[in-house]
């Protein structure tokens, strides 16, 4: 399966549960983002059979901040911007990247 195919299947099957308040500021926006702790693209590259959807709920502000830090080489895995993906979950206001 292609990388794009694998990621889109993973995206479609993600069961992320009920959106939670931001884990950094605990502020509950109407919109929460699910941030994958291990980027889906990296999981594919590592040959995962099943996607790991371990994620953190973040408010849009802190999600943007985390990705800004990742882009700027903070943490050991820069270049993970490509794991970003947008999911509009049915019946929720959740998005996942
Ligand atoms: Zn926050
Ligand atoms: Zn993210």
Structure characterization notes:
The protein is an alpha+beta fold. The protein has one domain (3-96). Helix content is 30%, strand content 10%. The protein has helices spanning 3-13, 40-45, 60-71, and strands at 33-36, 55-58, 95-96. A three-stranded mixed β-sheet has the order 2-1-3. It is globular and about 40 Å long. The model is unreliable at 76-95 (pLDDT under 50). Bound molecules: zinc ion (ZN) (2 copies). One zinc ion is lined by residues 22, 24-25, 27, 58-59, 61-62.
Compose a concise summary of this entry.
This protein is an alpha+beta fold. Helix content is 30%, strand content 10%.
Uncertain segments are 76-95
Describe the largest sheet: 3 strands, mixed
Strand content: 5-15%
- Could you tell me which ligands this complex binds, including any ions or cofactors? zinc ion
- Please give the domain count: 1
- The span between the termini is 21 Å
Please identify the structural class as seen in this structure: alpha+beta
């Amino acid at each position: 399966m292609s990388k794009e195919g694998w990621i889109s299947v993973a995206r479609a099957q993600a069961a992320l549960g009920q959106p939670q308040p931001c884990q950094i500021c605990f502020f509950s926006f109407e919109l929460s983002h699910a941030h994958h702790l291990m980027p889906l693209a990296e999981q594919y590259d590592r040959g995962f059979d099943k996607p790991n959807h371990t994620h953190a709920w973040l408010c849009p502000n802190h999600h943007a901040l985390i990705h800004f830090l990742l882009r700027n080489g903070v943490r050991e895995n820069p270049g993970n911007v490509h794991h970003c993906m947008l999911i509009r979950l049915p019946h929720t206001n959740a998005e996942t990247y």
